[in-house]
Structure formats: structure tokens, C-alpha cells
Design goal:
elongated, 5 strands
């Protein structure tokens, strides 16, 4: 492959990846999509735990995303979010749910 072809391929790939927003990536994952304050989340519930994923990253928005992730879990499951932990390497949250507080039933 010539250097020009490699350059064209690299530019095309960069263009494609640049077009992918967090919301577009969220649509590729299984689970319930929930939008909170303009951010897209994907929520998967298993019993009293929900895994919440978000694909927007920036050092300045971590607190906002953390609060929104808890709200996304509540919206998707109908349960209250008792606690939330974040995987420090990415915007991946584990939320412990309290379905008794809302009268909802735990999903599986």
C-alpha cells in the first residue's frame, strides 16, 4: 500500500470516528437508551443492579455525568438509585437499586 493510500485511509477513518457522537455509539449497545440533560445513556438491569454506560468523555463533565447516570438508571428501571460507583477508566457506572422505595419490581 502506498503512503498516499495509507494517508487517505487514515483520513477517512478519522472522519468516520469524528462523526460518531456519544449518542450514536449508545444506539449500538444493548439495553434501554435514556437521554438525561442532553447526554445519552444505555441502561441494563439485572435484579437490584443496573449497569449504565455513557460514551461522552471530558475531564470537566464527570460530576454532571455521574449525577445523570444515576437519574438514567432511575428512569429506565423505575427504581431509586441507592448508590453509584464508576469504573475509573471510562464512563461505566454500576448502580445499586432500591425498587422497594418506588414500588417497582426488580427486572432481570
Amino acid at each position: 500500500m502506498t503512503n498516499l493510500r495509507r494517508l487517505c485511509l487514515a483520513l477517512a477513518l478519522a472522519e468516520l470516528l469524528g462523526a460518531c457522537s456519544g449518542a450514536m455509539v449508545a444506539d449500538l449497545y444493548p439495553g434501554t437508551r435514556v437521554d438525561v440533560d442532553g447526554a445519552a445513556f444505555v441502561v441494563e438491569q439485572s435484579g437490584a443492579t443496573a449497569v449504565v454506560r455513557n460514551f461522552e468523555t471530558a475531564p470537566g463533565n464527570q460530576e454532571r455525568l455521574r449525577l445523570s447516570a444515576a437519574r438514567a438508571a432511575e428512569i429506565a428501571t423505575g427504581c431509586a438509585a441507592d448508590s453509584l460507583t464508576q469504573d475509573p477508566a471510562r464512563n461505566h457506572y454500576e448502580v445499586l437499586l432500591n425498587c422497594d422505595a418506588t414500588g417497582a419490581t426488580s427486572g432481570s
